[in-house]
Amino acid sequence: MKAIRRFTVRPVLPDPLRPLSDLARNLRWSWHAETRDLFQSVDAEAWAAAGGDPVRLLGSVRPARLAELAGDRRFLRRLTAAADDLDDYLTGDRWYQAQSDGLPAAVAYFSPEFGITAALPQYSGGLGILAGDHLKAASDLGVPLIGVGLLYRHGYFRQTLSRDGWQQEHYPVLDPNELPLTQLDEPDGTPAQVSLALPGGRALRARIWLAQVGRVPLLLLDSDVEENDLGERGVTDRLYGGGSEHRLLQEMLLGIGGVRAVRTYCRLTGHPVPEVFHTNEGHAGFLGLERIAELSADGMDFDSALEAVRGGTVFTTHTPVPAGIDRFDRELVGRHFGPDAELPGIDVQRILALGMETYPGGEPNLFNMAVMGLRLAQRANGVSLLHGQVSRGMFAGLWPGFDAEEVPITSVTNGVHAPTWVAPEVLRLGARQIGAQRAEDALAVGGSERWDSVADIPDQEIWELRRTLREQLVLEVRERLRVSWRQRGAGNAELGWIDGVLDPDVLTIGFARRVPSYKRLTLMLRDRDRLMEMLLHPDHPVQIVVAGKAHPADDGGKRLVQELVRFADDPRVRHRIVFLPDYGMAMAQKLYPGCDIWLNNPLRPLEACGTSGMKAALNGCLNLSVLDGWWDEWFQPDFGWAIPTADGAGTDADRRDDIEAAALYDLLEQRIAPRFYERGRAGLPDRWIAMVRQTLSLLGPKVLAGRMVREYVDRLYAPAAQAHRALTPDTARDLARWKARVRGAWPGVSVDHVETTATTATAELGSTVGLRVRVDLGELSPDDVEVQAVSGRVDAEDRITDAAIVPLKPAGAPDLDGRLLYEGPLSLDRTGPYGYTVRILPTHPLLASGAELGVLAVPSQEVVEGAGMLLR
């Protein structure tokens, strides 16, 4: 019989055990091994049944067991120690508190998804896991972050397979009362809520749930409240579900409602008000509009408020392809703003202008969330060096006239939260080597360039550790495979073969990703006979563990999953290659440590960063990857292999896949497998162990989320906080007026004449050429602009590469026509074809970049022809 109503019955803990509740409600347990061990000791069977979730565990423990623990002095000592340790973690000074003054009092970090723990399934893939790791690392460092997201009642889908290998989606209902969440309440005990106005006089209301991530509060907005109509209740039903309007409402709730939730939280708790707002991808871009509306309500005009908001906003883009960005029809967006809907005090046309693709190649009727994010943020970044470069090219249309290299989008390469992803066995080895506290600090805070202590670990210990982790993965795979086959309809009598799946002494390759086409799940199947030979090789066999989810609407991705599953179902190879459905955090935490090789073969340069290989590396797994994302930046032959790419313009997609698959097979057959099975004098694979050691000592410190968050603080948060403080209502108004004046006068700015002291087209290295430039500034003054010489080597088409930029100085009064003379030296510091040009840019102390206004003046063709622009 089915229940007609559901309740959550909470246990009443005996007084001595009350600290267990605080430990369970703070998600630090998800990365703190001692706290997890404590909960496991409460009831090992119940802990396993609860999936390692302390809240579910405490809801299922028998009262008699609780009474027994309340009188167990040894357990109570451990409980007191864990509670004291958490208190010290939450209240003591950390890295951030030791930095110089000027850092932001608080940072609000917005993301559509957060992967904190499998017990809080509010993530779909890398974006959410990155956001979760960002919060955890901020907590470890003491950065005063407030996370903001949505609470999806169905989370992301659970994946199973049909008998013929077709992906099937399931959406289990999540009850917030059974999750490690606390409802945010007003002083009178009523739930705290935010509300958005909808067209037609309707409203979208959401309550605020709090997940405590160490020191960091994470606010999650939930529209499933009784005050909403049925349609509005479903706005936060599932992650990345529904049509365009559903998605738009989610993003309005995240951005606009999220700012209101932050204000509510700070009012109720006394938390410092954020000075910096960081939007993780464009989904939360509407947060800038809400902040403009707040300032407008205090009397600021739109343009001044825009400048004030931009100064304190950071935007991170995660996609290397336009198709990955949310875009909405302009009429749909326009209908949800204005006098009859949300933000009635702001002209709808000003809102639309922020997101329209008003540049060559753009779609004039589409509202682009990433474009709005860039226009509302003074600082922006990609998530690896290569992705920063790709992003500058992708969004160059917003800064017309500038070379892509000068587009003001920097990069902060992603990192991963080591305490979450490093296997306990690896942590224990580190603790034995350098002490528990130093090991914890090295992984959480980072800061060193290399981990030299890894050199002191004996080869035998490293190899035994790797075998232990591989063996654990084999057991995990067999258990999950058995569950999967039962879901596919198989009976126990059919599944005896699973006991022989994988071998703890065989080279193990892992591949686990989302399944869009560019990640090429099935590249390994390009030559099935050759793959089969590798799997079954008598001396150098390999085994492969694959996992991944296709988007529910992506039938092409589902076909790729089915293709791989059908190959893995072949009785000839099913003991050597497996597909595990329902890839998520719990699976990943076993998968990364247990693999010897982490495979990544995307179409370059479509992987923005790709952090799974980082998590594997922290466990001593070697990377085998296309030079894309972070691997393009940090690859060294000491700790992995690069798959050659065939990305020339003349290579069609099929041909490219054939070439790159062949290169992958060659690496595995000729270099990787032989090295794994090669034995030295002590019977150990010496050269393999050396690569594991180099991976840990040289790559480990680079891939930490602690390093990433410190970079955000130093390079983005601190400058944004300074800009926020500098942009008072008066200075913001002055800056807005200055920008309007400069833009209006810019058509009258020109470079009229350029000459040098060079008398020939050749010059000697180290010599200096005098440069004289006459410019017309029209209605602007010299204080409004900077005249620059740009020089460097030139290519065959006279494009300057690796440019050096030198400001020129005004010399003398204007001539009779009002033109000004600028002069300066040009140092010829490079041999070969060399060239220069000059340009004029706007300049102001409150600009973050000379490209910020998107305007510049360069010499006309007539001026160029008379200037001797090339020195050869």
UniProtKB/TrEMBL annotation:
It comes from the Bacteria. Belongs to the glycogen phosphorylase family. Phosphorylase is an important allosteric enzyme in carbohydrate metabolism. Enzymes from different sources differ in their regulatory mechanisms and in their natural substrates. However, all known phosphorylases share catalytic and structural properties. The lineage of its organism: Bacteria, Bacillati, Actinomycetota, Actinomycetes, Kitasatosporales. Its EC number is 2.4.1.1. The keyword Transferase applies. This is glycogen phosphorylase. CDD domains: GT35_Glycogen_Phosphorylase-like (cd04299). It catalyses: [(1->4)-alpha-D-glucosyl](n) + phosphate = [(1->4)-alpha-D-glucosyl](n-1) + alpha-D-glucose 1-phosphate. Keywords: Allosteric enzyme, Carbohydrate metabolism, Glycosyltransferase, Pyridoxal phosphate, Transferase. Its cofactor is pyridoxal 5'-phosphate. Residues 13-120 form the DUF3417 domain. It is an enzyme of class 2 (transferase).
